[in-house]
Amino acid sequence: MGIRTEEARALRWDHVNLRGDPNARRAVPPHVGVWRSARLHGETKTERSRRTLALPRLAVEALGAPQDMQAHECALAGEQWEDSGLVFTTQLGGPLDPANVRKMFKRVCREAAIGDGWTPREMRTSFVSLMSHRSVSIEEIARLVGHSSTRTTEVVYRRELRPVITTGAEIMDDVFRRLADRAGEAGS
């Protein structure tokens, strides 16, 4: 969903709603409130970084696993368990170290057979690029990822997914087809 690693590391269970409220006047989908960060003083990077994001079904299902795993780890740790309220924690319930997140991410990528040259930040870049590829406006993408302006979204994060830019050829084909149709109508 384009969340920064430091925002995910600070995500608390009290900001996660895996059920939503389908019976509300305007149905509320499952969502997360991105209101904190692992940055100094817990502040998000910018004011616009504070946002509430609806979750796709796969994320709702995936977030159920940490809840179950934490309950198991808490029972194993006993009095050593640190009840931080965080979604993503160490085996003792404490906050995750950024270097360990990167190591875990590399291990997951290796096990998924996509290589270990990826970084967590590239998930954010991929999210922005996929949104752009699906014709989501740059303003909406900037809102989703919490950028204070579209410039960062465009320059730093958005990558062209199509290896060949086809827009010009598609438009010109349409123009030439219309001209040929008119010429054919005129000759009839």
What is the share of helical residues? Answer: 40-55%
The assigned structural class equals: mainly alpha
Q: Any idea what the radius of gyration is?
A: 22 Å
The string of secondary-structure elements, in order, is: HEEEHHHHHH
Low-confidence stretches: none
Shape, please?
Answer: elongated
- Biggest pleated sheet: 3 strands, antiparallel
Query: Could you give the count of β-strands?
Result: 3
Number of helices: 7
- The amount of beta strand, in percent, is 5-15%
Largest sheet, spatial ordering of strands = 1-2-3
First-residue to last-residue Cα separation: 56 Å
The chain-level mean pLDDT equals 89
Which short descriptors sum up this protein?
single chain; 188 residues; 5% strand; 48% helix; 3-stranded antiparallel sheet; mainly alpha
Give an overview in words.
The chain has 188 residues and is mainly α. Helix content is 48%, strand content 5%. It has helices spanning 5-9, 57-77, 98-111, 120-133, 138-145, 150-157, 167-187; strands at 16-17, 31-34, 51-54. A three-stranded antiparallel beta sheet has the order 1-2-3, with no helix packed on it. Helix 4 packs antiparallel against helix 5 (138-145) and helix 5 (138-145) crosses helix 6 (150-157). The relative contact order is 0.12. The model has no long low-confidence stretch (mean pLDDT 89).
Condensed summary:
With 188 residues, the chain is mainly α.
List the helices and strands and how they pair.
Layout: H1 5-9, E1 16-17, E2 31-34, E3 51-54, H2 57-77, H3 98-111, H4 120-133, H5 138-145, H6 150-157, H7 167-187
